[in-house]
Specification:
This is Oxidoreductase. InterPro entries: NAD(P)-bd_dom_sf, SDR, SDR_fam. This protein has 243 residues and is of the alpha/beta class. It has a single domain, classed as Rossmann fold (3-Layer(aba) Sandwich). It contains 7 helices and 7 strands. The chain has helices at residues 17-28, 41-53, 68-82, 105-129, 153-173, 197-203, 212-222, and strands spanning 8-12, 32-37, 58-62, 85-90, 130-139, 179-185, 234-237. Strand 2 (32-37), helix 2 and strand 3 (58-62) form a beta-alpha-beta unit. The radius of gyration is 17 Å and the shape is globular.
């Protein structure tokens, strides 16, 4: 594993599921890590304790990705603690199901605030504090390619927006050699899918769902030196779900 003992990563939405696996994977690879959380304080503190017990260094920051001020504060606190940011992973997201005739304005505004505006602002803030040659990775979804179910139209178009956003921001940051890529997981074994894992596994060509560690592994690769020529891409990791 590539060691990164002088590097710092900030994970937006890092206390549970895929985000927590990313924090653990990067910490194991030598990154000093900061991560944000909103409601899962117990999970956040447990994750920080686990990382510290394994010899890593991490900082848990309460920050709502729907709040521009808290996004900026998370970046400032990371720089204050660690002195720099080399990688930003934007995993924070909000998922609400509702068909078009039942979706509310509150649902629409909430998902836009976190899944689109929050992603843009997190990248903007982190890149402003990032060293040249840094890395940005967003966590999108394979629903940007294929929904597969009714009631997910708002969530789908927010994730499609992230895939498009990454292309434009990659061009903006290319002069600084900062790469920007989007990882699009399919069904993954997290609490979001806890009640549907068997059904989702049956629908998969590989007859299983992903582990969060598999998604974290792809993120870790995109931060490596070997991935320095890859930018503006959306990479789907879904076991063939969208084939």
């Amino acid at each position: 594993m590539q060691q990164n003992h002088e590097k710092v990563a900030l994970v937006f939405g890092g206390s549970r599921g895929i985000g927590a696996s990313i924090v653990k994977r990067l910490a194991a690879g030598g990154y000093r890590t900061a991560f944000t959380f909103v409601s899962s304080e117990a999970a956040a503190q447990a994750l920080a304790a686990d990382v510290d017990a394994d010899g890593g260094t991490t900082l848990a920051i309460r920050a709502d990705s729907a709040d521009p001020g808290e996004i900026a504060d998370a970046v400032a606190r990371t720089v204050e603690r660690f002195g720099r940011i080399d990688a930003a992973i934007v995993n924070a997201g909000l998922f609400r199901m509702a068909p078009i005739d039942a979706a509310t304005l509150a649902d629409l505004d909430a998902m836009l605030a976190v899944n689109v505006r929050g992603v843009f602002l997190a990248i903007q803030a982190a890149a402003g504090a990032m060293n040249d040659g840094g890395r940005v990775v967003t966590i999108g979804s394979n629903v940007a390619i294929r929904t597969g179910m009714a009631g997910a139209s708002i969530y789908q178009f927010t994730k499609a927006a992230v895939a498009a956003m990454v292309k434009g921001i990659a061009l903006d940051l290319a002069p600084r050699a900062i790469t920007v890529n989007n990882v699009q997981p399919g069904p993954t074994d997290t609490d979001l899918n806890a009640g549907a894992l068997d059904l989702l596994a049956e629908r998969s060509p590989l007859k299983r769902v992903a582990s969060p560690a598999e998604i974290a592994g792809l993120v870790a690769y995109l931060l490596r030196d070997e991935a320095g020529y890859m930018t503006g891409s959306s990479v789907t990791i879904d076991g063939g779900f969208t084939l």
